[in-house]
């Protein structure tokens, strides 16, 4: 099997192992420090939950050997972003993409193979840029696209011991991998110097050296070997950075501003990015010094993604923890970024952890041995020794894992050489000259909740619980601790979230005088029920409502007692004590009401409404009663409540917002009596109401005599006017009642609105005119009565009524109403003139009336004057009338002469028509049958069309109407009878004894009948030509085929 196959098989096995470990229980027996933890809760059929403890076989840490046959001994190893780089003897390096394990790239190192025995290798977070440095000061750079390292010409004779990459690249390693530039990089050396550089592959692939820039930016105050270097950005301050510098004895913290954004890259050839930051920070350095001999000095920083509250952008990668290897132990702590300025510290909760002793034979302890390397995970510090690996929990400083390498490897001298962490993928790797190891981490935080619990850090413990059983243990402990401390409300909230029995928990709080404790428990417990547990929710909500109402009553009593006590005291005491206590009680009441309202709002579908109403009434809480009724949509109760209290405006307001049509119909009679104006204003905003169903309420309002109030007029008229004019109501009942109110409200001298209504809607007649006439007569509305008579075509009654009441002007207006009946108009005007004459009016007034009528003459009114009236008063008018008559006589004479001349002309035309003839050729044929015309009786028309009499008759009968057709048939029958009679009369002389005188008389009568019959027949048949007459012209729009034609559907016309 090849090396690639071995590595691929190993990768699949590790992946399967990790997945199985993740699916296992989150409680484990780990390494030497194994301990049993609560397992998942077991839910029983009866609903109770057991908290039995279980263990799992999956450890948190496990050291696996990678099955990869190394061609030569391993000198150095680095892993980043799933890119693993091995430096092996023979001046070779292997690059392996762990996502594609078969693709192994061999990289040449331009050094003498015998001289490369030790080196440091640094890989950037994206895995694209690789630095290699030897103790001899040879430095090389390799980009991921190369297969050979290139010497760094400006780095000669400089041993690189630490590198600080641009840490924000961890947040977007994929995009960083695609970038050609590494960004600004800080490198530390063996002599305490810090350089700044930027790695970028050269455009010329044939170039054998890399000319990456190198700029000295700082020197340590104490020139020691730099063993660790870290660069971290402040999460909330874009330009502020933290640089940690580690040596064997000191850990420097440098805080300052540095712009490393891409737009500043153009200025990097002439200026440094970190020079000012490091110069200012190291001029008065902030450092932690460990006395004694220099230690290994290795520095490890753990970074995690943190999303700031309210930020929309992606989470930022923030350094949160660090660890530093010293001669005395591991110095570790948390990194907190805030508003630090240069010289300030970002380290918090730092402590020094002594190295644990190594027990080689298991019988006695030996002095502690310093580890060779370290790494930091989320909660643990990893210490690498030459023959083993250890993990120490940072929270309790206990060792939770230790595993030595195999005995065979130790005996063969295959000792561990280094430890590295892939920060992007959170994997840990170790190596020896012959093997590669992966430290698999499974559920690292499985025991963290228990550690926080021991420290009574309950919130942190809850944040790291993995299952309900763990959360239950934490909340129980928190509840007990809070109860013991007297914080009963918080204790009750915690108890509600545990599996402690309901009865047991309630018994703890039910006897307490402070009802807030029990309320807190019930409110919190209520939130733990699912929607399916309706019974439990209903019971708890009902209990809570009762508790809230009791607390509100207690506050009312307390405030009343405070007011009474203040009233008995002095004025100074009243000013100092009473307001404070009363105001406090009011504030507490407002808060309780808000909570109560929020409770019933959230659980309104679970509340038993009758019980809630009963509780509110028993406690006298009408405010809650109203709120709950409104919340449930029971607005009928609300309206009735306000009406019982006499608060009619509030009732109208509720109706306006939430009322249904049925509620309006029910409560409008009482509300119309109490607040008519406000109710009508609300009614006019309700388009869904039917106006005729509100008439009973309007009638009660009218009967109560409230219409005469000075509140803006009759509100019933106002509403009905709105329905008719704005809503376009067409209900006759509405019109009739509106007319009734108008008749009642209008005065006899001012019928303007009533007349406007009758005039506007007189043509539609949506009201009953007979009823309207009766009402107008009853209340003496004369003008309206006269108008209604005219609408009913009773014009004489209209004029008579106007004249009876002496309204000559009104009578004259209505005398002109029958405009299409001149005789009636004249008769009406004569009535008016007769009335005026009877009133002994002046002659001038009578003549003015005659002139206005345009229908009367002096001769029409003279008979109505008294016998002894002086004619002198009408002399001029009589003369004018006589002159008009003379003119009319002359016109009639002219018309008679013209009529005589017309009659003479017509006689002449008739004589000429008798002499008119037509010339018919001997070969002329009938236009209907095409047979010779001379064979039988025929007709010839002025248009020269000629027809046989019978052919023409058939054509006319086929096109004429039914009446004409019947008349033609009758004339034909009469012609047959007359022809038979004529033949009999011709045969009569041959009979003996027949009288001669009677025969002559009979023949003359028959001949007269024949002539009359022929004339009538000619008038019907030969009135016009059937081919070009008017009847033929009218048939232009008719189809050619009739209903009886064959193929009327179109087949008969097919070509």
UniProtKB/TrEMBL annotation:
Pfam families (alphabetical): Pep3_Vps18 (PF05131), VPS18_RING_C (PF26148)
Enumerate the subcellular locations listed in this protein's record, separating them with semicolons. Answer: Endomembrane system
What InterPro entries does the record tag this protein with?
Clathrin_H-chain/VPS_repeat (IPR000547), Pep3/Vps18_beta-prop (IPR007810), Pep3/Vps18_RING_C (IPR058919)
* Alphabetized UniProt keyword annotations: Coiled coil, Membrane, Metal-binding, Zinc, Zinc-finger
Q: Which residues form the signal peptide?
A: none
Q: What is its main location?
A: membrane
Does the keyword Nucleotidyltransferase belong to this entry? no
- Similarity section: Belongs to the VPS18 family.
**Listed PANTHER family:** VACUOLAR PROTEIN SORTING-ASSOCIATED PROTEIN (PTHR23323), VACUOLAR PROTEIN SORTING-ASSOCIATED PROTEIN 18 HOMOLOG (PTHR23323:SF26)
Question: In its UniProt entry, what is this protein called?
Answer: Tethering complex subunit
Q: Which organism is it from?
A: Coemansia erecta
């Amino acid at each position: 099997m090849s090396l690639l196959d071995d590595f691929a098989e190993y990768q699949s096995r590790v992946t399967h192992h990790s997945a199985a470990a993740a699916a296992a229980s989150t409680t484990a027996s780990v390494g030497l420090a194994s301990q049993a933890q609560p397992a998942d809760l077991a839910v029983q059929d009866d609903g109770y939950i057991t908290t039995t403890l279980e263990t799992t076989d999956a450890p948190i840490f496990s050291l696996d050997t990678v099955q990869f046959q190394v061609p030569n001994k391993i000198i150095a190893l680095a892993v980043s972003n799933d890119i693993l780089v091995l430096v092996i003897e023979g001046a070779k390096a292997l690059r392996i993409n762990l996502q594609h394990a078969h693709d192994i790239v061999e990289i040449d190192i331009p050094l003498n193979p015998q001289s490369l025995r030790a080196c440091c290798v640094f890989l950037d977070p994206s895995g694209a840029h690789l630095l290699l440095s030897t103790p001899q000061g040879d430095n090389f750079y390799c980009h991921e696209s190369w297969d050979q390292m290139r010497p760094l010409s400006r780095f000669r004779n400089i041993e690189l011991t630490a590198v600080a990459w641009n840490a924000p690249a961890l947040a977007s390693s994929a995009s960083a991998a695609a970038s050609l530039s590494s960004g600004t990089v800080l490198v530390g050396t063996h002599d305490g110097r810090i350089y700044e550089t930027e790695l970028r592959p050269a455009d010329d692939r044939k170039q054998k050296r890399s000319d990456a820039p190198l700029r000295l930016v700082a020197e340590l105050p104490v020139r020691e070997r730099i063993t660790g270097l870290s660069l971290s950005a402040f999460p909330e301050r874009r330009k502020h950075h933290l640089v940690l510098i580690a040596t064997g004895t000191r850990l420097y913290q440098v805080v300052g501003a540095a712009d490393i954004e891409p737009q500043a890259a153009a200025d990097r050839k002439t200026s440094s990015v970190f020079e000012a930051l490091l110069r200012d920070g190291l001029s008065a350095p902030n450092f932690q010094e460990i006395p004694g001999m220099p230690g290994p000095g290795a520095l490890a920083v753990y970074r995690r993604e943190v999303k700031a509250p309210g930020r929309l952008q992606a989470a930022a990668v923030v350094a949160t923890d660090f660890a530093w290897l010293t001669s005395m132990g591991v110095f570790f702590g948390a990194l907190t970024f805030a508003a630090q300025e240069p010289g300030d510290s970002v380290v918090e909760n730092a402590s020094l952890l002594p190295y644990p002793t190594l027990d080689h034979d298991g019988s006695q302890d030996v002095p502690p041995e310093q580890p060779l390397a370290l790494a930091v995970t989320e909660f643990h510090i990893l210490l690498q020794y030459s023959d083993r690996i250890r993990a120490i929990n940072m929270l309790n400083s206990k060792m939770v894992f230790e595993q030595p390498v195999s005995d065979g490897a130790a005996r063969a001298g295959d000792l561990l050489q280094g430890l590295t962490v892939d920060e992007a993928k959170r994997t840990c790797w170790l190596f020896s000259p012959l093997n590669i190891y992966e430290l698999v981490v499974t559920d690292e935080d499985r025991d963290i909740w228990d550690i926080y619990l021991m420290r009574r850090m309950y919130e942190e413990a809850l944040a790291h619980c993995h299952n309900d059983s763990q959360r239950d243990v934490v909340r129980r402990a928190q509840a007990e601790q809070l109860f013991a401390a007297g914080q009963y409300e918080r204790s009750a909230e915690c108890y509600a979230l545990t599996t402690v029995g309901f009865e047991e928990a309630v018994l703890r709080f039910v006897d307490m005088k402070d009802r807030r404790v029990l309320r807190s428990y019930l409110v919190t417990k209520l939130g733990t029920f699912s929607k399916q547990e309706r019974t439990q929710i209903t019971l708890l909500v009902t209990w809570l409502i009762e508790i809230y109402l009791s607390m509100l009553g207690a506050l009312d009593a307390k405030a009343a007692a405070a007011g009474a006590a203040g009233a008995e005291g002095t004025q100074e005491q009243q000013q100092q004590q009473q307001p404070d206590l009363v105001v406090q009680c009011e504030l507490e009441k407002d808060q309780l009401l808000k909570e109560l309202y929020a409770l019933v709002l959230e659980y309104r579908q679970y509340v038993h409404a009758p019980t809630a109403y009963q509780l509110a009434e028993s406690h006298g809480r009408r405010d809650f009663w109203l709120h709950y009724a409104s919340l449930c949509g029971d607005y009928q109760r609300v309206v009735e409540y306000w009406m019982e209290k006499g608060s009619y405006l509030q009732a109208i307001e509720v109706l306006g917002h939430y009322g249904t049509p049925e509620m309006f119909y029910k409560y409008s009679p009482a509300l119309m009596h109490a607040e008519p104006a406000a109710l009508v204003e609300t009614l006019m905003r309700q388009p869904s109401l039917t106006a005729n169903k509100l008439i009973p309420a309007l009638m009660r309002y009218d009967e109560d005599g409230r219409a005469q109030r000075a509140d803006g007029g009759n509100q019933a008229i106002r509403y009905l006017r709105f329905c008719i004019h704005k809503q376009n109501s067409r209900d006759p009942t509405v019109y009739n009642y509106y007319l009734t109110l108008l008749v009642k409200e209008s005065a006899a001298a001012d019928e303007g609105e009533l007349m406007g209504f009758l005039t506007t809607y007189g043509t539609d007649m949506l009201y009953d005119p007979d009823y309207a006439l009766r009402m107008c007569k009853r209340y003496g509305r004369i003008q309206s009565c006269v108008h209604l008579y005219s609408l009913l075509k009773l014009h004489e009654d209209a004029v008579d009524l106007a004249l009876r009441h002496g309204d000559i002007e009104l009578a004259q207006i209505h005398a002109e109403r029958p405009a299409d009946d001149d005789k009636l108009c004249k008769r009406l005007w004569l009535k008016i003139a007769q009335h005026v004459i009877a009133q002994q009016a002046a002659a001038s007034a009578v003549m003015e009336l005659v002139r206005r009528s345009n229908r009367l003459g002096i001769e029409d009114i003279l008979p109505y004057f008294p016998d002894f009236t002086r004619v002198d008063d009408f002399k001029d008018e009589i003369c004018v009338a006589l002159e008009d008559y003379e003119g009319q006589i002359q016109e009639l004479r002219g018309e008679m002469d013209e009529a005589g001349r017309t009659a003479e002309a017509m006689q002449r035309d008739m004589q000429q028509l008798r002499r008119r003839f037509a010339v018919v050729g001997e070969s002329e044929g009938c236009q209907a049958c095409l047979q010779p015309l001379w064979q039988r009786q025929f007709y010839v028309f002025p248009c020269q069309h000629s027809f046989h009499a019978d052919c023409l008759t058939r054509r006319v009968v086929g096109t004429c109407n039914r009446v004409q057709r019947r008349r033609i048939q009758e004339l034909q029958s009469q012609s047959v009878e007359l022809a038979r009679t004529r033949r009999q009369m011709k045969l009569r002389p041959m009979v003996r004894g027949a009288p001669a005188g009677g025969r002559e008389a009979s023949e003359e009568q028959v001949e007269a009948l024949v002539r009359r019959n022929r004339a009538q027949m000619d008038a019907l048949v030969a009135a016009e030509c059937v081919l070009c007459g008017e009847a033929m012209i009218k048939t232009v729009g008719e189809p050619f085929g009739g209903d009886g034609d064959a193929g009327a559907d179109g087949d008969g016309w097919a070509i």
